[in-house]
Design brief:
Blueprint lengths: L6 H4 L2 H31 L17 H26 L7 H26 L5 H11 L7 H15 L6 H31 L6 H6 L2 H10 L11 H20 L18 H33 L10
């Protein structure tokens, strides 16, 4: 087996194939993100309130803020405990990257929600009254008419467009949605049954709390989850793999955090291609959770649950 730091290692044919599997999606994702960003600038659909206003009637934004504070503190404590227990090299794993990304999401969410709670009571009475009239109306109308009215009020009542922080938060949210699914599914169904990992309470929490906290946040927020945002998830995973290659090329470490990242095997392209394809069901699974939330809760609680997006 060739050394990961030697030139012969990086000149193998499977390394070139794996590089194409990683760099092609990276370039495509960056290109789509640029095009989507330009389109959103023209359409200006995302509002600042979409990031901190709950999708439940009579639920004050302060409760969403409180939840995000709790989630941030718990995830920060969990990440710190993991580093203390396993050492700083544990940060080479994709799991820790994902937990850190979720932590950043909740950190930004706390800032955005706090700012939203600060401005929420200061909205003109007419705007708040208009919103209260909407959420108090009889929801016996068709779902299409209700959704249209809600969107119209959302655009007319709070005119502030989402800023750079809100757009960053939404982008991280979509990357987190797929990443937590990928992390937990690979751990519970691949690494734990077939690998050498032994289950501990810390590892169990680490590979479950991330998705639990994010799903609960999704149950209260107004974030849409379109497939066009799949690119952020792809870009996040590609950034992780490229960073691992750079670390190994520079000789910082000589071991791979996951056996399927090893390049010195003819099966490496198959592993990398399989992982690339596995991103699709991971993102689709979280997208289905969001659609199920909108479909089920809007019918179970038609007077309490508000859908701001189709």
């Amino acid at each position: 087996m060739a050394e990961a730091t030697g030139l012969d290692y990086w000149l193998q044919w499977q390394v070139l194939v794996c590089a194409l599997i990683v760099f092609i999606p990276t370039i495509i994702s960056l290109n789509l993100i640029i095009k989507t960003s330009r389109r959103q600038v023209k359409q200006q659909q995302l509002k600042s309130c979409d990031l901190w206003l709950p999708c439940w009637k009579n639920l004050h934004p302060k409760w969403l803020l409180l939840y995000r504070v709790i989630a941030f503190c718990f995830m920060a404590l969990l990440l710190c405990q993991t580093v203390v227990s396993f050492g700083p090299f544990i940060c080479f794993y994709y799991t820790q990257w994902t937990v850190a990304l979720v932590l950043v999401y909740f950190a930004i969410g706390v800032i955005v929600s706090a700012r939203g709670c600060w401005t929420y009571p200061k909205e003109p009475l007419a705007n708040n009254a208009e919103r209260e009239m909407l959420v108090a109306k009889d929801y016996s109308d068709s779902a299409h008419e209700s959704t249209t009215d809600i969107k119209a009020v959302g655009e007319n009542s709070i005119h502030q467009e989402a800023g750079a922080l809100e757009n960053l938060m939404q982008s991280i949210y979509h990357a987190c949605g797929g990443a937590v699914m990928l992390t937990d599914l690979v751990f519970w169904f691949l690494l734990l049954p077939w690998g050498n990992d032994s289950l501990t309470m810390l590892l169990g929490l680490l590979h479950s709390a991330n998705v639990v906290f994010l799903v609960l946040d999704s149950a209260f927020n107004n974030h849409p989850f379109p497939w066009s945002r799949f690119t952020y998830f792809v870009l996040w995973s590609c950034a992780y793999i490229i960073s691992q290659w750079i670390i190994h090329f520079c000789g910082v470490v000589t071991w791979w955090p996951y056996p399927f990242l090893e390049l010195d095997t003819p099966w490496a392209p198959a592993w990398y291609f399989g992982l690339a394809l596995f991103h699709i069901p991971c993102y689709a699974l979280y997208s289905l959770l969001i659609k199920a939330k909108d479909f089920i809760l809007s019918r179970m609680f038609p007077r309490a649950f508000l859908r701001f997006y189709d």
